[in-house]
Every structure is written in C-alpha cells, then in structure tokens.
Design goal:
By secondary structure, the protein is of the alpha/beta class. It is built from nine helices and four strands. The protein is globular and about 60 Å long. The protein starts with 6 loop residues before the first strand and ends with a helix.
C-alpha cells in the first residue's frame, strides 16, 4: 500500500514576493527561502482572494471565497462549524498540528469599531439574534485567540480540535508583542521576559523614527520567530521518530508584519539610506480618509 505523504506548510506574514532575493530583490538577504525556491517550484502569477489577513486565511483553510465563508474583513471570526481542509485530513488519518499565528478569530480583544444601532426606545433584540449569524454572537468560543485572554489568564487555552488541528501552539499578534502559548514559553525561559518587550521597554535609539518600530530588548533566542521555529523542529523530530501516522504541520510566522522589532543582529542588518523607495512612497497631498487615519 502506498504511503501517505507528509506536509509542512510554512507561512510568513505580510511578506511581499519582491522582498525576496529569489524574486529579484538585490538588497534583502533571504538565503533559506532562496534555497527552497531553487530546489522547488515558484510562481510568477499567484493570487490571493483578499488582501486582508483574516479573510484570506479563512479562504486558505476552507477553499472558499470570503463571500461564501463569511469572513469579509478582520474582526469577523471563521464560523467554528466550518469544514476546513484539516478536518478532511484528520478524517483520512493525518495528524494535524498548527504552530504560530492562526488569526481565524480576532486577536486584539478590542470591541468592533462600528457602533451598534440605537433603538430609540424600542426593545433591542436578544444577543443571540443581534448579528447575521447566531453562532458568532451567542458563543463565547470566539475569543480563543484574543491576546488579552492569554495575557491575563495563564490557564487559558483553545478547544481542540481547533479548526481541524489536533494540536495547536499559538503565537498571536506581531513583533515582540506576541501572546498565546508563546507567552508561557517565554516566561518559562525568562520569568522577567515581559519586561523586555514592547515599545516602552525598548532600547532607546534616536535613529528610529518610524511610528511602529523599536529596538526590542528581547534576545534572538527568545523572540517569537525562534519559538515558532523551535517548536516546528521539535514536531518534525517527533514525527520522524513515530511514523505510524502521516502528518500535516503548519508553521506560521507572525513576522515580518509590523510593528518592526527585529532582535539583536537583525536590527542593524540594513542601512535605511541604502534602500530605494518605491514610487508609492510619495502619495501626494490628498486628504487621508478617516478610517485610514484611524
């Protein structure tokens, strides 16, 4: 009987193709991705169904367009009763694992920016009927990725299987502000780890003027990228030792999404003055729409 293949899916976040050496960038050094490109397959025309994070991640998991799976924008969670391709893999015997950023549910814990309508003396509908879909409103299981839950409650966890994953190790949010299972991993290695991250704890640098960038005090070995890479390698070693079941392993890095907080040697790897700016850098003097300014 033919052996079922194993799968390793590696995702980087907010990472443009033209910022890879294998796609022609002459400044950014990406040797490991270039090696994969040299030994594998690359595409010159590869399109996503949405430029926004949650809709596109939901489409990746379900194989459906946003208008069908309902995640039209960030802040709208993927329905827990959705059938994901990982559900089909599990049903066919694969062991499914997710390490890193998921973002199938909202991460910030912030309430929606859009205000609920004022009912002008009329009795408002019950909470379960206040939205277009019952289960996204009535269930308390749509805050499983909220960083506030992970930050404030060390015992918080996701309910498994989670969108078809047998095991999950979350690293939610970005830069050195990542929470999730990463939080416990960091604190186990450095009990004072939280005092090393975030803009208020950053190393002062007068050369940093970008609003969402700072020189993090987190060392490279404690940075979220290292967490995702380390756990991914641990799982690969585990699967290599026990080959009784095929595996699907999703390795999802939160970086290089802003805020830009590269640790240690990576912060000074490039001189900003040496990087040519794209034409879109000068947008003109058109007024900024309020939602963009926000």
């Amino acid at each position: 009987m033919e052996r079922k293949p194993n799968f390793l899916l590696i995702i980087t976040d907010q990472h443009r193709a033209d910022h890879l050496a294998c796609y022609g960038n002459r400044i950014v050094r990406t040797p490991n991705i270039d090696s994969l490109a040299t030994r594998g397959w690359t595409s010159d025309s590869f399109y996503v169904c949405s430029p926004i994070c949650m809709p596109n991640r939901a489409s990746l998991m379900t194989g459906r367009m946003p208008m069908v799976h309902g995640v039209r924008h960030n802040g709208i969670p993927l329905a827990l009763n959705s059938v994901c391709f990982t559900d089909l893999l599990r049903a066919a015997g694969w062991h499914t694992v997710m390490v890193g950023k998921s973002h199938l549910q909202t991460m910030t814990g912030q309430p929606p920016a859009a205000k609920r309508p004022v009912w002008d003396g009329l009795e408002p509908p019950p909470p379960a009927l206040a939205g277009a879909l019952r289960d996204r409103v009535a269930s308390d299981r749509y805050d499983q990725e909220a960083v506030t839950r992970w930050r404030d409650d060390p015992s918080h966890d996701v309910e498994l299987p989670y969108y078809g994953f047998d095991e999950v190790a979350l690293a939610n949010e970005h830069g050195d502000l990542v929470e999730g299972h990463y939080t416990s991993w960091l604190r186990a290695r450095r009990p004072d780890g939280d005092s090393l991250r975030g803009q208020k704890n950053a190393t002062p640098d007068p050369n940093v003027i970008t609003p969402q960038a700072w020189r993090t005090r987190l060392p490279e070995e404690l940075y979220p990228t290292s967490y995702v890479a380390e756990l991914t390698k641990d799982y690969l070693a585990k699967f290599a030792a026990d080959r009784s079941r095929p595996f699907f392993l999703k390795c999802s890095f939160p970086d290089p999404h802003h805020p830009f907080t590269p640790p240690g040697r990576y912060f000074d790897m490039y001189d900003p003055a040496s990087i040519p700016l794209p034409p879109s850098w000068e947008p003109g003097n058109a007024p900024v729409p309020p939602h963009v300014a926000w």
